[in-house]
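Researcher: Next sequence.
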Amino acid sequence: MCYFCLYFFKMELIVNSLADLPKAAQQLLDFAGDKKIFVFRGDMGAGKTTFIKVLCRELGIEDVVSSPTYSIVNEYISPKGAVYHFDFYRIKNIQEAYDLGYEEYFYSGAICLIEWPELVAELLPENLVHVDISIANNTQRIFRIS
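Model: Next structure:
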């Protein structure tokens, strides 16, 4: 089982197609309550960024949401305030997260959506929503949320 699976998932969602993603995003937001830090784990191609794009729409973001693979973080404005989308896939060491000023983002009270969190695990706050995405087949994904 994965590094972040030391906890037990509390909700499992089966997503059969892209059309199911808005409902899954709303269920995630309902589950999260007042938590604002979300970490997304899954193999390359599991659909982390695709799901985050839909989640941002559910948050009311009207801008085009894109992967921050090269910029590491993208900022969006929603009716609920700032939303920061991180992709730590390309960082070479933890110092790059410090140089980015991760504390200003993680502890800002804003919503943070974090891909590849295992690369900055030691920096993550405690009160997180964990989203593990598994590939079941070409179109189906399993979301385990805790």
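Model: The beta strands are 11-15, 37-41, 73-78, 81-87, 111-115, 128-135, 141-145. Confidence is low (pLDDT under 50) at residues 1-7.
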